[in-house]
């Protein structure tokens, strides 16, 4: 019996996980850009993220907590030259940086096709002569549990799945990269898309107050800085009004406004959404029959829906219901990320679509491209799945906002007041049904900053959706706007 017990004890012995180390790989490349041939070094791999640990009032070491996947591009420059550097990430929460990386900013881009003309598998990659690398070095960051980023062995991924810890971890990656690469004196930009815009705004304030690292600008693509402007929650009528111009733009794209110019339709929708519509929603049962009928007529005409549907919806058109209803007579749905895309549902009488065609239409192209590109062109190998959009980050913690709307408007205002040279570029897609452009305008108008700092805000619009760069004309225009913004520093 004693021998058996000893054997059991031995089987329970565990080994301490090996200390994680960076696994970065560098490769050298060239690309033709407008100014000629550009040579650059790509470095990709996982950086070990460590944190100072204090226990019982004592310093307990600098302990590894996560391995964060980063891809950087640094152009070969003349000695003494100081180039800007742009740190980029997407949103979700739960999205990797693949979309900005291979869709817009990086030196290589995915060939995915566009709405109505999607590329077939196995897709392809092409050089991106419009890459922002021609004007700024680039660092793409995948938050923990996205891409190849993971908590360390034995660590707790959920520690990073929340507003505050996400900001702190990304800030530490930026501080490390800046320090290790001697770039404290370089102009710095933060580029975020979707939830990444909320992250970028909060990061700017955190980097400044925690490390004294002052960015020169924020590139906010498909911006959402106050979740209360886009979340259809009980008692919150604001999103119904702020979404209406986007509904009008999508309806226009699908022929619901005849030959009227888009700008004319949007002007009407914006004026109604800013004045009569919020007033009518606030009036409730105090609306007269005639007033209610007029609101029904206006909303239906602008959104491309039937008056009967608007009446039955109590004047309030929730976004997923809209995407499902707009083209019901054609047995089609439209995309949330980009209303130019159309899809099909087996249940044409359903209340909510089961698939966003603007995501499923391009997902395969981006997945094939990133998995090929990292391994075959950047020489980085890892047998983990590259998590493009990970559900493992849910539920995302917003405990800091308990009882309040999730908003970083105050953080951004504080960052701009402390750093009056901080500039904002905001890119909006007219057919973006995830972060509507009129909501972005609403938030920007309420930034708590002095009047003179409003000159630091540059807003651009594109006739496409959330990832407006899927639309080739928009991609070219947006690339030019970003280059102009980065090059316009004082």
Automatic annotation (TrEMBL):
Superkingdom, taxonomy of origin: Bacteria
Molecular function GO labels: serine-type carboxypeptidase activity
Keywords from the named record: Carboxypeptidase, Hydrolase, Protease
Region (Disordered): 1-24
Biased composition (Basic and acidic residues): 1-13
Listed GO biological process terms: proteolysis
Protein name (database record): Carboxypeptidase C (Cathepsin A)
Organism: Saccharopolyspora antimicrobica
């Amino acid at each position: 019996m004693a021998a058996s017990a000893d054997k059991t004890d031995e089987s329970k012995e565990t080994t301490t996980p090996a200390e994680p180390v960076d696994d970065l790989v560098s490769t050298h490349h060239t690309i033709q850009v407008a100014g000629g041939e550009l040579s650059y070094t790509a470095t990709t791999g996982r950086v070990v993220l460590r944190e100072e640990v204090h226990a019982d009032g004592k310093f307990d070491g600098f302990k590894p907590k996560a391995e964060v996947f980063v891809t950087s591009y640094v152009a070969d420059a003349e000695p003494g030259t100081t180039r800007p550097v742009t740190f980029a990430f997407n949103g979700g929460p739960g999205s990797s940086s693949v979309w900005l990386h291979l869709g817009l900013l990086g030196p290589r881009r995915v060939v995915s096709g566009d709405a109505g003309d999607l590329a077939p598998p196995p897709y392809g990659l092409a050089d991106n002569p419009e890459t922002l690398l021609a004007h700024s070095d680039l660092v793409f960051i995948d938050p923990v549990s996205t891409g190849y980023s993971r908590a360390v062995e034995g660590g707790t991924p959920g520690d990073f799945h929340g507003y505050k810890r996400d900001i702190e971890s990304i800030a530490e990656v930026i501080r490390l990269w800046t320090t290790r690469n001697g770039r404290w004196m370089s102009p710095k930009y933060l580029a975020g898309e979707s939830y990444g815009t909320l992250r970028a705004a909060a990061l700017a304030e955190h980097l400044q107050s925690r490390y004294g690292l002052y960015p020169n600008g924020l590139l906010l693509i498909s911006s959402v800085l106050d979740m209360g402007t886009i979340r259809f929650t009980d008692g919150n009528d604001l999103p119904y009004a702020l979404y209406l111009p986007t509904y009008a733009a999508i309806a226009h794209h699908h022929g619901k406004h005849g030959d009227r110019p888009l700008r004319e339709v949007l002007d009407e929708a914006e004026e109604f959404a800013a004045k009569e519509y919020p007033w009518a929603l606030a009036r409730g049962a105090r609306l007269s029959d005639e007033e209610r009928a007029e609101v029904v007529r206006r909303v239906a005409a602008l959104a491309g829906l039937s008056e009967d549907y608007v009446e039955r919806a109590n004047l309030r058109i929730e976004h997923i219901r809209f995407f499902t209803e707009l083209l019901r007579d054609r047995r089609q749905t439209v995309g949330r990320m980009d209303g130019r895309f159309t899809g099909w549902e087996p249940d044409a009488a359903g209340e909510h679509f089961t698939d966003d065609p603007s995501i499923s239409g391009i997902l395969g192209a981006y997945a094939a491209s990133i998995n090929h590109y990292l391994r075959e062109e950047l020489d980085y190998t890892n047998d983990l799945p590259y998590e493009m959009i990970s559900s493992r980050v849910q539920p995302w913690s917003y405990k800091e906002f308990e009882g309040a709307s999730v908003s970083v408007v105050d953080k951004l205002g504080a960052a701009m007041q402390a750093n009056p040279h901080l500039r904002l570029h905001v890119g909006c897609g007219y057919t973006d049904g995830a972060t509507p452009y009129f909501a972005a305008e609403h938030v920007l108008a309420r930034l708590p900053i002095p009047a003179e700092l409003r000159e630091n805000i540059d807003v651009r619009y594109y006739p496409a959706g959330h990832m407006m760069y899927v639309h080739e004309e928009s991609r070219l225009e947006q690339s030019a706007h970003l280059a102009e913004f980065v090059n316009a520093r004082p």
